[in-house]
Specification:
Elements (H helix, E strand, L loop, with lengths): L6 H5 L7 H16 L17 E3 L10 E4 L6 H9 L1 E4 L2 E4 H6 L4 E4 L10 H12 L6 H23 L4 E3 L24 H12 L2 H12 L4 E4 L2 E4 L9 H5 L5 H8 L10 H10 L1 H4 L3 E4 L9 E3 L4 E3 L7 E5 L11 E3 H14 L1
Parallel strand pairs: 1-7, 2-5, 5-6, 8-9, 9-11
Antiparallel strand pairs: 2-12, 3-4, 7-8, 10-11, 12-13
Helix pairs in contact: 2-6, 2-8, 3-13, 5-6, 7-8
Amino acid sequence: MTHDFSVEACISLQELPSYDFIFSLAQKACSVLAKEPESYRPLDCVGQRGSLLELYNAENRCLPVVIIPDIHARPDFIANILECTIVLSRKKLTVRQALDQKLIDVICVGDAVHTELYSSRWKLIASEFEEGVCTGHFMQQEMILNLSTLCALMSLKIAYPENFHFLKGNHENILNCSYGGDFAFFKFADEGEMVKKFIQEYYDEQLLIELSKYENLLPLAAYGKNYVVSHAEPAAAYTREQLIDARFDEEVVAGLIWTRNGQVKKSTAESMLKELLGKVSAKKALYFTGHRPVKENYALRQNGKLVQIHNPRRQNIVFVQPDKTFDFEKDIINTKIKSIEQKGDKKDE
């Protein structure tokens, strides 16, 4: 059977994907991640792809970047991002068109799964699990969104291997384990364990292992000419070598994906900007993270050098251009509003 692995097919899923569909996508995404060019993903101490993306390097790779905060099972967010218009060299392009032409990088800060907007549904799912039903109606509705989002992100990585990047967040823990820098996840209910059991029962253990392999191949941090990105506020001022070899130090992994507001007492972001970009470039650079929700479009920490951008009730993206001072009013774009405006314009025409 021939599958349609396009991002559109993934976003529009109305039912749970077949085993072959998601397993094949995961295998393809793993293959891409395991073979990323060393020019922007340097090898770690054992000769495998390290955990750092260097998107500004000696080969003069220097593109504008779209930074995407936590997605949390919102396939509509992905659709709106791809339709959103940005301006490059005075020319208007959608994010999708810019990716097609390799004119931008896209970096997602992590957290593909576990919806945050339907807390009441998690309570209903918990009731299903209390009755011993791991694949009940409400859980299936949740998993359609989870797997639609996950499949769309893997599809984008396959379609744009050098320009679309997804960093590991604390929710990228399909095994719901508590080792290697990961911790079992529990927020509205026992979401981490529920998702794990669903996949084991509805699909099988082998798919769980393949998805875990995909998660463990994801990078943990990225930087360009005037930015650094990780899922969470860095708990310490990590060196380039520590970031590349992060998988061999669980404290580094946890420090990049689990940090709480108020946990960091030193200016770790500024130190890392200097470490990765140099003292001169660091003066005009910013460190972007998701993880902890903000009430408006952004929140500033660490003397304004660290920018948190995850508002779960908005669909914002951040647009950073290499030779332009970041404008907090214009360069944070609500893709949901833009999408509505674009559809309205088309209708008027």
